[in-house]
Amino acid sequence: MMFPHNFLWGGATAANQIEGAYRADGKGLSVQDVMPHGLRTPPTAEPTNDNLKREAIDFYHRYREDIDLFAEMGFKTFRLSFAWSRILPQGDETEPNAAGLEFYDRVIDYLLEKGIEPLVTLSHYETPLHLARHYGGWTNRELITFFERYARTVIEHFKGRVRYWLTFNEINSVLHFPFFSGIESTPEELGPQKLYQAIHHELVASARATKLAHEIDPANKVGCMILAVPRYPLTPDPQDALAAMAASHEDYTFGDVHVRGSYPGYFLRKLKELGVELEMTDADKEDLKHTVDYVSFSYYMSVCESANQEAGGEGNIIGGVPNPTLKASEWGWQIDPVGLRIILNDYWDRWQKPLFIVENGLGAKDKLINETVEDDYRIDYLNDHLVQVGEAIEDGVKVLGYTSWGPIDLVSASTAQMSKRYGFIYVDRNDDGSGSLKRYRKKSFDWYKQVIASNGASLRP
Question: How far is CA 212 from the centre of its chain?
């Protein structure tokens, strides 16, 4: 199995899940600071002491040690996010927090010293809390200006050092988890008018950041980032196929706008049927024409869809119906390696833009024994998914790279637990906050090192 010679192997993280130091050096609060239990409970009024993300795995102070381990594995790239509230603590300031920029200076410079290409996400589920509570998050058009200012600050500051950028993490997740986008309401509480207006604001902000990045440095490569979920009809019934198509369109919309520069017809029909009238200026329409260089996505699961409301309960974390042919992880996410080949072909055929798999991994309850973890289940999971990436490349799909989620144990976004572990590196920290934070190499560490060294040739068919 042949991967391109310049394939970008690596790993992916988010600031709020690894950095800790939640109020250090002038950092402001983000929405994550009032989500101590992830998506399991509503946000709290104020930050609480039981939030593991306050310290996380202390990457803020241990980044050199962790980057050394990534370099030992042979990483070509490392996907990280900048915490918006570390650079602009409230989110609406006109001048950045110098200490925040200095921290990322140290991280980026050390990555480059180790020969690792930085891949930076501008906003990864960590909207400044002030923007969420004072302005209403992305329901407010003013956030476009605030995000544009933040994007300009960091893109100018890191010119020549960061070449690969992503605007918003899993931008379509706002359909399911609005507070990750700084909107403190459920989709039902928001209603379609406010929800889709917020989505429009976020898409315009993404396009403006893309335009800025290209103006500041034409060598910059900017991508969108989508939560990718193949949706299969539960039965051969054409109505189930229509249900799968409609659910897929929900996700396609975000890629269609980023790649094609305008809203697709099926989306405009949906808005009309919902009675939604977007407030969209001529300037907005021009902004949306600034399209991305590549499409990146996360992939963890697939679901089935059915027109029959009695077909079964929700599958996985983002709706749908459980697939009776698939097994699931310990957290109920159905495991479907072939779905990754399907989504790669689907996106390539649809958009004809280079693709980048920037999240894929298995959350599991690891056991540290004799200073390692025998995580063959993780090796099997990743091997089977990477084989399907290789098949997609053979199909003619252009794939830029693969960054596993997360290469080092971190605090889960969905559950805010440490026990849901993804890494090649075990971090000694528990759900109750205890632990030494010492790092240990798992069995999968050497496995992934070999995969990278062989450029995928060591994968088992």
Answer: 21
Give the residues of the chain that fall short of pLDDT 50.
Answer: none
- The full set of domain ranges for the chain reads 8-453
Cα angle, residue 340 at apex, residues 381 and 173 outer, rounded to 5°: 100
The DSSP string of 87-153 is HSSSS--SS--HHHHHHHHHHHHHHHHTT-EEEEEEESS--BHHHHHHH-GGGSTHHHHHHHHHHHH
Query: Could you write out the DSSP letters of every residue in 22-84?
Result: TTGGG---BGGGG-TTTTSSPPPSS--TT-GGGTTT-HHHHHHHHHHHHHHHT-SEEEEE--H
Write down the pLDDT at residue 185.
87
Q: Is position 359 annotated as part of the catalytic site?
A: yes
198 Cβ neighbours under 8 A, 6+ residues apart: 137, 138, 139, 174, 178, 181, 183, 190
Residue linked to tokens 């002030």: 130
Task: Find the angle CA(322)-CA(323)-CA(326) to the nearest 5 degrees.
Answer: 120
| Residue of 93, 359, 374, 391 with catalytic role | 359
Expressed in percent and rounded to 5, the helix, strand and coil fractions of the chain are: 45, 15, 40
- Tokens at 400, concatenated: 């830029």
CA distances for 257 relative to 118, 200, 203, 265, 455, angstroms: 26, 10, 8, 11, 33
- CA–CA distance, 257 with 250 (Å, rounded to integer): 12
> What pLDDT is stored for residue 312 in this prediction?
63
Q: Are 304 and 236 in contact (CB under 8 A)?
A: no
Question: Bridge-partner residues for 321, per DSSP?
Answer: 304
Q: Which residues pair with 294 in a beta bridge?
A: 223
> At residue 436, what is the residue type?
S
Whole-angstrom Cα distance, residue 233 to residue 219? 42
In 3D space, the residue among 440, 431, 301 whose CA is nearest the CA of residue 365 turns out to be 431
pTM: 0.96
Torsion of CA 262, 210, 74, 461, to 10 degrees: 0
Residue 442 structure tokens: 């798992």
Two tokens at 253? 């919309």
The CATH number given to 8-453 is: 3.20.20.80
CB proximity list for 237: less than 8 A, separation 6 or greater: 307
Task: Specify the pLDDT at position 309.
Answer: 76
